[in-house]
UniProtKB/TrEMBL annotation:
Top-level lineage group: Bacteria
Stretches assigned to the Transglycosylase SLT domain: 46-131
Annotated signal peptide: 1-37
Keyword Iron in annotation: no
CDD domains tied to this protein: PLL_lectin
Organism: Kitasatospora cathayae
Record keywords: Signal
Name under which the protein is recorded: Transglycosylase SLT domain-containing protein
Residues covered by the PLL-like beta propeller domain: 165-483
Length: 489
């Protein structure tokens, strides 16, 4: 792919630096004076519980507070924040991205906790915190659990939502240590590359074999190991990490052939795989987290030979969206970790789709067709807007990712052009499409551990990538390392 000069957008994003202010917090506070550890962590536990955090969400909240500020209510950081801004208090609420949180509130322990509870959707979405994305909070999880034990409250509560990874002929997601792992499907099988350091450079490509010209999906097991699935018209196989961020198994048979697939995580940690074929949709799921699999089961119909994507509602229920050239339908879990509804009409036919979520948790669906891109979004947990035209390229492959402040950004590519569009504010409408490059066959967006979006574009010339150098600037298209990677036709 070739790079096309890009108009500079309005400065609604901060620039990245060594320590980044990612929507809420810059991570470890360079200028903070931590309180004594025991006092600080017990303070996070107390005010976190009073704010509403429960169960695993309380433990995670305390650990994030320790990673952000050492649970010091007076912590403050201004270093390397551009535009000039401050990260404040226990959960380092940034005054640029959250001006609704006053200084008086941010430096008050309970008010800061209340704001963190709201911004994290009750402890179900920690993606706005860079320390969570980088895994820096994990070292504090044991101490956080001990603080909860001292507090004496063990009320059940929600675990953080693990949103489905998107699927396609090129897929990527973060390993447990924060490095991106990338898979691309060519005619001769699947190729693999990975970051050699968190947010860093890339390895050379390696050939893995497996199904040729496959559709791919990737998801995390409950213990942090990734599993990748590859499906073509005759074969479905998978391989998995033998330990988190570690080496991979060989390919193993996972079922027969089909058209497309997606993988998501139930709220109890069990992976769920959805696949389409000539007689509709089928699914297969882990019988326990990190464990074996059920047999394939029919999903009760659904569009034949459809493109399928998974989303996760704010309460943790998975939703399936299935689109072919004439029909668009969806179904959803009727209870968290539970059974499935019947199929319901969701729109007319189209070419491709992507599913994402707003900062407030509401699902957002974008679909392409001959008239461009349209989108539809939840107006409540059980209701949806009408379809709204968004413009953009016709019959495009599309992908999406959330910027660190929670806005959805979508990317579309067809044979002649690549473009992108972004929400003008958190939970807000979209702006105008902007040129992103030349044409290709596939596009896929994901986020680095520091929150920067990284986009992979494929064509018969190989797989290239483009990444944010700041929140309003992008690199040129480039190879990952020394070669262009596999052709994706």
């Amino acid at each position: 792919m070739t790079s096309t000069p890009r108009a500079r957008r309005a400065p609604h994003r901060v620039l990245l630096s060594t320590v980044v202010s990612l929507g809420v917090a810059a991570g470890l506070t360079a200028g903070a004076t931590p309180a004594p550890a025991a006092t600080g962590i017990d303070l996070c536990a107390e005010v976190g519980y009073e704010a509403g955090f429960r169960g695993d969400a309380l433990v995670t909240a305390i650990a994030v507070g320790m990673a952000e500020s050492s649970c010091n209510p007076l912590a403050s950081n201004v270093q390397n924040n551009t535009p000039p801004s401050r990260d404040r208090g226990l959960w380092e609420i940034n005054d640029y991205w959250h001006p609704e949180v006053s200084d008086a509130c941010a430096f008050d322990a309970q008010c800061n906790a209340n704001a963190a509870y709201r911004i994290s959707n009750g402890g179900t979405n920690w993606q706005p915190w860079s320390t969570y994305n980088q895994g820096a909070h994990q070292r504090y999880l044991g101490a956080a659990q001990a603080a909860v034990d001292r507090l004496g409250h063990h009320d059940p509560g929600p675990a953080p939502l693990v949103y489905p990874a998107k699927s396609g002929r090129v897929v990527a997601t973060r390993s447990a240590d924060g490095r991106l792992e990338l898979f691309a499907a060519g005619a001769n099988g699947v190729s693999h590359a990975w970051q050699t350091a968190v947010n860093g450079a890339w390895s050379d490509w390696e050939s893995l074999g497996g199904p040729g010209s496959a559709r791919l999906a990737i998801g995390p097991d409950a213990d942090g190991r990734l599993e990748v699935f590859a499906l073509n018209g005759s074969t479905l196989q998978h391989r998995y990490q033998l330990q988190p961020s570690g080496t991979w198994s060989n390919w193993e048979t996972f079922g027969g052939g089909g058209h497309d697939l997606a993988v998501g995580t139930n709220q109890d940690g069990r992976l769920e795989v959805i696949a389409s074929g000539p007689v509709g949709i089928f699914h297969k799921y882990q019988t326990a987290p990190n464990s074996g699999w059920s047999d394939w089961e029919t999903a009760g119909g659904g569009p034949a030979d459809s493109e399928v994507r998974l989303g996760k509602a704010p309460d943790g229920r998975l939703e399936v969206f299935a689109l072919n050239t004439t029909t668009f339908q969806h179904q959803w879990q009727t209870a968290v970790n539970g059974g499935w509804s019947s199929w319901e009409t969701f729109g007319g036919g189209g070419h491709a789709l992507t599913v994402d979520h707003n900062q407030d948790g509401r699902l957002e669906v974008l679909a392409s067709g001959p008239a461009g891109i349209f989108h539809k979004y939840q107006t409540s947990p059980t209701s949806w807007s009408d379809w709204e035209a968004a413009g953009g390229p016709a019959d495009a492959r599309i992908s999406s990712e959330r910027s660190p402040d929670g806005r959805v950004e979508a990317f579309a590519i067809n044979g002649t052009t690549a473009q992108h569009i972004w929400q003008t504010g958190v939970n807000a409408p979209y702006g105008q499409w902007d040129t992103f490059g030349s044409g290709g066959t596939e596009i896929f967006a994901t986020a680095n551990a520091d929150g920067r979006i990284e986009v992979f574009g494929a064509s018969s010339a190989g797989v290239y990538h483009k990444w944010q150098t700041g929140f309003s600037t992008w690199s040129d298209w480039a190879w990952l390392n020394t070669t262009a990677g596999p052709a994706v036709n």
